[in-house]
Design goal:
By secondary structure, this protein is of the alpha+beta class. It is about 40% helix and about 10% strand. Bound molecules: adenosine-5'-triphosphate and magnesium ion.
Length: about 525
Amino acid sequence: MLTDLEQLTFDNRFVAELPGDTETINTRRQVYNACYSKVLPTPVKRPTLVAYAREVAEFLQLSPELCCSEAFVQVFSGNQLLPDMQPHATCYGGHQFGSWAGQLGDGRAINLGDVVNQQGQRWTLQLKGAGPTPYSRTADGLAVLRSSIREFLCSEAMHHLGVPTTRALSVIATGEYVVRDMFYDGNPKAEPGAIVCRVAPSFTRFGHFQILTARKDLTLLKRLLDYTIATDFAELKLDLSSETAYLDWFAEVCQRTAAMIVHWQRVGFVHGVMNTDNMSILGLTIDYGPYGWLENYDLNWTPNTTDAGERRYRYGNQPAIAFWNLAQLANAIYPLLGEERLAELQATLDTYKRAYEQGWQVMMVDKLGLGMFNGENDMTLCTDLIELLQAVETDMTIFFRRLALIPLHADASDELLIEPLLDAYYVKEQLDTAYLTQLYAWLRQYQTRLKASDQPLEQRRQRMNAVNPKYVLRNYLAQLAIDKAEQGDYRLVNELLEVLRRPYDEQAEQETYAAKRPDWARQRAGCSMLSCSS
Ligand SMILES: Nc1ncnc2c1ncn2[C@@H]1O[C@H](COP(=O)(O)OP(=O)(O)OP(=O)(O)O)[C@@H](O)[C@H]1O
Ligand SMILES: [Mg+2]
């Protein structure tokens, strides 16, 4: 463990190997022929630590004492730079809600540099909300405490759930106010500001490639792609002189993206703003903005108020949107492959569909504890269940967690059979005869199917509990932590972080955090609907 932040070892490859912007003044502009612009974080008045994630600190070799020190707060609020840091914001573009938006870039994210730890792993440190950059367009480069707490808690919760994600080292309140019109309805308010330090092996997005192709800068496109393959995908050991290197790389991105989406569907995470600038090349969940967790299972649900009309980013549409986004990435690298490789590129894109389909089946088998996917019969079992879950308001997390507890003996009465599931229902009056008849029928089929799978009961339950979390960052829980934090009380943020470290464990003393959404949270801002304002 390091005792001094100056002992961190930096090796900033992105900056060293790719061309940077020749302009060094921090003015908003279009940046050509460059992958990044050097820019300093804006100092803040009174930074205070809200929380830090000890696992992230650990792999960066930062001791708990160091994380609670004044030096830590000064560095991770952007007030003080370490000697080997090379702060910069990167240039990317993207499709937002399906339309090409041109240059976006790190408008409020500043990479400090890449730390290499004792294991030789490279981790980029990135401040989000550390002030304007050349890519800030008309916005202020800042972030508010509420959105920063949501980003911090959710990235860590996702990691502990086993979902590929960017990580968060710390969230620091700046002691300054940031003006936001939360619902874009002409009611701006001063809110406390904050900065999250995100950590990932790389923050490269689909949009980093797209912007270069859009500008026909194929020389830099090739350089960035070669760099990415050599650095971020080094373990693939691709030979860059081989004709298939780019296709092999793209296949890997498709696989990783499919794996990530399967995880989202498994835990009921809805990203809310799956624009191509929010898609990580490494298949990591990135940009925790107007995301939400499914409470009642609903394929049509989107947490993002900006998306309420079209519902492009609804839960049930995430797999299709990921495919669409990958198609945009395919378009971006197409000029490097040429027409003679178009058919192969298209075929590679289809690996996403296969990987997703297969991953989904395995995921459902695990969630239901079936042992193995049994073709059409299991498909029907799954689709019937999905219909049932949507027929009445059913809490997804509680339902799947409790499914492991239903009695298996055929002579168990209907009442006994649904007893473990009753907690999952939001409106008891919806459980009418018609619904119950269907539910019992499904449960009987499920019982029969489980018996046929012939697994020892305890083993099956353990397997199911390992994929059906008991604790997720329920929207209202995050909001409760935010309400307290805005009063200067950070205990609930830290308590939630602690509970979410072990989402699959029973944690009997923490039951309250597994409770379904209370009625007060049904229509409250921040609980059931989120705006992009952050
Ligand atoms: N307050 C802000 N100041 C400057 N730029 C911003 C601000 N909010 C968003 N942007 C920029 O607008 C674009 C789209 O925003 P989006 O909400 O997807 O990202 P974000 O939440 O800022 O960041 P990230 O994707 O890095 O998590 C990005 O280029 C982002 O940097
Ligand atoms: Mg974004």
